[in-house]
Queue: 2 jobs
Job 1
Amino acid sequence: MMRPANWQKVVRIPTKLLLGIAVLLLVPFATAQNNLGELLDAGAKKLSLEEFKEEIVQRITVGSMPTGGRIEVVYARSGMIQGAGSNREGEVVPSSPIMGEWTTDISGRVCTAMRIGGQPGATGPPLIMLPARCQYWFKYKDDYFLADSDSDRSAKVLRRTVKQ
């Protein structure tokens, strides 16, 4: 049987192409977990409260909000939260101040109560009081994730990164 002179190159190109496609398909899985099950399957670990205090407190954390906006906050040792948030990514809107408090509970969750926007009676964005919320924190590689549950694999997660 006659083979083309460049048969080895012909075989190598599809193999490299398939390998490249496989790598590209795995990258989104490693970086875009949408629920707790995907996050745990990728190898994420739940943060203890001590780990949260060591790795998150006094550092700027950045991430998306469920509404599509962006948040940048600091959890202070004093139990205060301060930062800024924007309405939606990609929109030209001024960021709004974020203030609040954080505590922990006996289940190992971090509980927050935040206010977004201006002061009552002031000009600018209105004051929005968010309901208090307790969430678990998880870590996968260098990213952090918040979830309302530590066992419901369908629970949505929100990604956070520590700003360097």
Job 2
Amino acid sequence: MFRSFRLYIGFILVIGLSCKNNPTTSTTPTTDTTDTPWTPPIQIPTLSEFDAQFTVIGTEMTIEGRIKTNSSTLFNSVLAANAGVATVILENVPGTLDTDASFAIGRAIRSNGLATVVPAGGFIASGGTDIFLAGVTRTISGPNTTKQAGLIAVHSWEAGYTRGSDLPTSSPLHQPFLTYYSDIGIPDSFYWFAINAATPDTFHVMTTAEISQHGVVTTTTSKVTGW
């Protein structure tokens, strides 16, 4: 997973699971698996290391790969060329190299009234999770006969030797994230949960209880047999 964050005061911050190294990809979440959207042990799919690709079939746009600086421009271009798109499917979006870009995609999703879906077998984390949360409706699909339910992961960001989870809540470094979540209608509580759920070099796969508690999904279609 990768995440970089250009803070508004003008320098680059390396955030979360940055381009230093790939994080630990444990096949079990950091919490008990008795209340999760999968049948333990979960299987973390191979994390995409390719730049994000945007493909459209009918009314659905699929994103797969890591977000980078030009990804928001590509997203907007594809969306403009496909006015019928109503749903964004996040297939395997393990993070971002530029948080400004993932925030821009999320804001475009919200302003255009699009739905977001993590499909069965899908995986999102870090900046991918931020994009998913922008959906006007948000669904996690699965499991089905061949794939486990889609997985959503979170963790703390990191800037040099500074971790979001180590900062006081009054730190201005939190504000760009809090502003983004406010813009897309997500409560501050999700941000504080996410940065304390796992260290930057690993991730926490959210349980069903956490998904419900923090309003991550909006539709009952994600409450399928086996959850």
